[in-house]
Amino acid sequence: MRDYLKGKRCMVWSFMGNARMYQALRDYGDRLDTVGIFTFEVDITGTITETGTSISSMLTYINRWPHIKWLLTIMNHGTASIFTALRNNTNGAKDKFLTEIIRIMNKYPWCAGVDIDLERGGGYENKDAANALFRDIYNTVKAYNPSKLVNICLPGMTGVQGSVGGENWCVYEDLDPYCDTAAIMSYGMAWAGSAPGPVSPRNWLEGTYDYAARVMTPEKVFFGLPAYGWNWRIHDSPANLGITYRGISNTYYAAQNWMTGVYNFTNDAPPQPRIPIIAYWDDYDKVPWALPQVYDYMEGWDAVSRTYPLIGETYNRRRYLTAYSKQQRTEFGTIYVDRTGGSPDSHTGSVSISTQMVTLGEGGDAEYEFEIATAGVYDVAFRISFPFWDKNGIHVALDGVSSTFSENRLWWPYWRTTCWLSLSSGVYLSAGTHTISVSALVPGVQFYGFRACSNFSESPSAGEAEFMLSPRMFKDVNGVMAEPDRGFKLTTEVLRRKADSALVWYEDFRDDNPLPSSYWTALSGQWQVWRNPNQTTSRPYSQLDGSGELAWNYTGFSDVHLRARIAFTPEGNGRAGVFCGDVFCCLNFNTQRIELYKGSSLLGSTATEIIKTTEANLRSNPRMYTIEMRIRGNSVRVYSGASNILRFTATLNGFSGGYAGVRSDGRILCELLRLGDAWVYEPYERFDVIFPGGTTVEYGRLSRTGVTWDNEFQVFAVNSDVEESSTRSQDISMDYDFFHSGVLPLVCGNDYSVKVVPKDINVWISRLFLGDADGFSILYYQDVDSLVYWANEAAYRWKLRGIAIWSLGQEDMRLWEALPKQI
Prior knowledge:
This protein is 13% helix and 42% strand. The chain has eleven helices and 54 strands.
């Protein structure tokens, strides 16, 4: 006989205690398989008290629906110290807890068992003790009565140590034997303090249940779903709004009140209009969302114009603008003379001439004559390229008056590209013939030409984007056209990042000629670059493949920050990492440690786990490890991991620098080799907004102490050997941030231009929201379509037991008509 409820069981919790919860229990108890009675709280001593839903209020429904498995939910309300005490049996807390579980089951003999909801259990190092705790709970319940059930509530995990909330104590496969059922709490990816988004986004759900269904008994697993949503207020900062977090929890019916204009941000009364709005359907995450009191909305790609190097990118369907490097922006006013470097009037010594430029070798000198038609004051600028760190100086003379230009900063952003520099500003030039001559201070400099103009200026730029704001009136609940009573605010949503070392060289091996001999040298071993043949785009994914030492062809490195992402191949062994001179920072597969050497001397180490990549995954899914070191004088800092965690420091003696690059004892793959300055940092945080009327406001820059700023390039150097994080009291979230304008007196029906100008690279310009200054928000919620979709996925895709909805009384009541009866 076919089991029509296979995969269709439904669990809920009695957390809300509201009228709708009791209505659902009364009218739709036949749709429920399991109910966790959210009543029992354990404290740090292991004692259980009754603090939640009263048992007396539940007895009517317990008697009405005997088919339901009524579980006694025992929770610690996310208090880490309680979990720790139970796990470690501190002062006998676990022993007491186990006797308390028996006590409450004795007190309520009608219960089907217990539901264990323990959260904030800490890191992976706690897994063995956590496993023992759940084992002891399970064995205690079964010894008391084998028919009693144990449900455990587990955090959403996409793999071992795959928690987004730090709950890495949880290992699904270890806990599978110690439960009859398990409800995975896969809700809460978005929360009150996060950036707005689906409470349970698709990517997280798929990762969680791909893992759970593989390592647990699928028929035990309840797929956790939210019945609630969040409304994030984005018209001002939480501090100014007098709240801790910008998000406010909403039931389905609270969200419906926003849709129908029942609610507004002035206490559901004037002066803000009460405006019915429509919701959008996110067909990827299968969830509805809305923008209450927002009059215009655009994504980064909706800019009406943008200037390079600002480009459009996509991540997780978010279409944003960003710049990965700064370009020199130049202005010349009126150009009177424009001469390329490839046609000197005379030259002596070693001068290599091409169409656009000359390369000045040893003793090389080139001379150019130009005519000025009208005597006057001019600016004269010239264009050069310093191709490498040892090709970094040039003499340039105007009518015999010589100036020297050189660059010694490793992080200078114009290496290996061309830039314009000022030769003379406001110089008087008579009518007639004048001369510019150039010679190499250091052989190898390239001279591209010069201009005489009215007004030369230059600056580094990350581009800018122009958006058009078009506020229009809405119709309120009374059918009257409405607009904000006192004006608008513009909120810009951006993603910022923590500062990183000022970039010297970023190598992902994707260029057409990835290892030119002018820049690279193989000091030992053999190296080649593999490129993905299936990618038709420019710069396809590539890997450096080999062993030995590969270095930049320059011997002057000393104070540097080196980072690499490497994978060990099946035949690889020994050490692999980055080096500078005789200092080697590496992952040692044989010892399973991060190690630092100077020559053959081991200066420091720390344990880590290193796993080789299988042959099948080498090109498509390599297991990459990040290893890095920062050398400042006689001090070395060693980091590892995707979060660049400082592992240890060491002191050098007799270090003189030299070559720098990647080194390995055996065959490895490397997908990134990054060289940065050891002292100078580049922030990824600031952007400016130019509002209608021309006012410019700066956003995002953090206040720092103990640093020296370079205002031209917007980078800073630490004044002592400290971590960058110690220079600031503020942190940068890896979530999207919101930045708000003052009140803008715009008029509905008109269009207004606004410009966003990033001052730092790697700032993602995500979305702009123009809303009522009295308040506007982003609202995500769950409806019947969302819950039914994932219920079907749970049953038919992952073949789980069913769904667990947090929590009863928050849901769209139409849901119950869409779910099967359990009896």
